[in-house]
Amino acid sequence: MPWQEGILRRQAARESSARTYARALPIVPVRARGMTIEGADGRRYLDCLSGAGTLALGHNHPVVLEAIRKVLDSGAPLHVLDLATPVKDAFITELFRTLPAGLADHARVQFCGPAGTDAVEAAFKLVRTATGRDGLLAFTGAYHGMTSGALEASGNAPDVRVARLPYPQDFRCPFGVGGDRGAELAARWTESVLTDPKSGVPHPAGMILEPVQGEGGVIPAPDAWLRRMRQLTADHSVPLIVDEVQTGVGRTGAFWAVEHSGVTPDVMVLSKAIGGSLPLAVVVYHEDLDVWEPGAHAGTFRGNQLAMAAGTATLAHVRENGLADRAHRLGDRMLTELRRLRTDFTCVGDVRGRGLMIGVELVDPSGEPTPKQHPQPTENPTPADRTYEPLPPAPELAAAVQRECLRRGLIVELGGRHNSVVRLLPPLTITDEQATAVLDRLTDAVQTAARTHTQTRLRP
């Protein structure tokens, strides 16, 4: 349509070169409800991006709209800085009702600027103030935001104040082994950093991690490894910061992803879904860390009443309707179905995730995998010892799959170390029928994209 094309042309001419989603998704949304977006050209799309995980209940959920309208109709002030209001009180009450066991009874909350990266910055400032130390421990593949401090702790901007540790994963294990052995080696590395006086890493102010790395390629942390990180940080008086910006509010099949491992962090960084589609970010932390002086951390837009009302409605709806449990069940079903792609297509290297946070990693099958040396080879290796390096990533193929998905009315995102992981973040309200449609469209997109890449072949 000329109208849509004109809008897209003006966007390209007037907006920053830093724009991202708009490049891969050249659509102009004009209406949306639930999981469905309608473009200006009249086409409908199933949205498996969900505002990068922001829309736990999908677009324009009735309980969210009702909560927003109630505040608007009440005549309540919309901008109140950090003053107490009934809307804020209700939000904090509902938020604390959902917190992991062991934290809610001893928690404090700090409202930050409206983005998750603001909450990350606040968390860093908090632990540095509380411990009197400066350095941080973070993990390869991490993503914590776009402000300078958050970037320092992410996987793409080295900084002397941040020591990077290996994050365990099976498919591209940094130690070449994966599984429990790979997680154990990663934990030992972390332990050596904390205990070796010659490690070169000063005693840190805190450790930050994601229970599931999202932008890093949908990599769930092993539960035992996460418990080990909790024990190591506790033993060495290092506050543990858990970034639940994308994993929180039922996304992974538990209300908070740390609950899978039974871990209670010292600090939780929350944003995205807690605002019910509107900008809101908070840091929740143990009261023992609450050593800030008045005004130590502030922000003009900390008191977004509409976001708090929408957030309260979202948190309550997820909790009262068991949507985290549903995400667990439906996510398991989708993962099971998608893992069949590894049998059918040589270009599908791995399918992984937790709950409704799913990743499909595309690889280049043009070459044969090469054997890799086991760290501790045996004289009589078993078949399990004869492991192989994963095939190279295929970012161009992943981009082709994304384009084919869009042609079929399915919005997906890319991520991972080489942007070769197709990511699915559907709303928790996705129906069984919609899940089937997502799987069918994605499978068809992979098949079509594979045929356009001459080196990619169907498995016999």
UniProtKB/TrEMBL annotation:
InterPro entries: Aminotrans_3, Aminotrans_3_PPA_site, Dat, PyrdxlP-dep_Trfase, PyrdxlP-dep_Trfase_major, PyrdxlP-dep_Trfase_small. Keywords: Aminotransferase, Pyridoxal phosphate, Transferase. Its cofactor is pyridoxal 5'-phosphate. It holds the Pfam family Aminotran_3. The keyword Transferase applies. It comes from the Bacteria. Pathway: Amine and polyamine biosynthesis; ectoine biosynthesis; L-ectoine from L-aspartate 4-semialdehyde: step 1/3. Its EC number is 2.6.1.76. Residues 362-392 are annotated as: Disordered. Belongs to the class-III pyridoxal-phosphate-dependent aminotransferase family. NCBIfam families: dat. This is Diaminobutyrate--2-oxoglutarate transaminase.
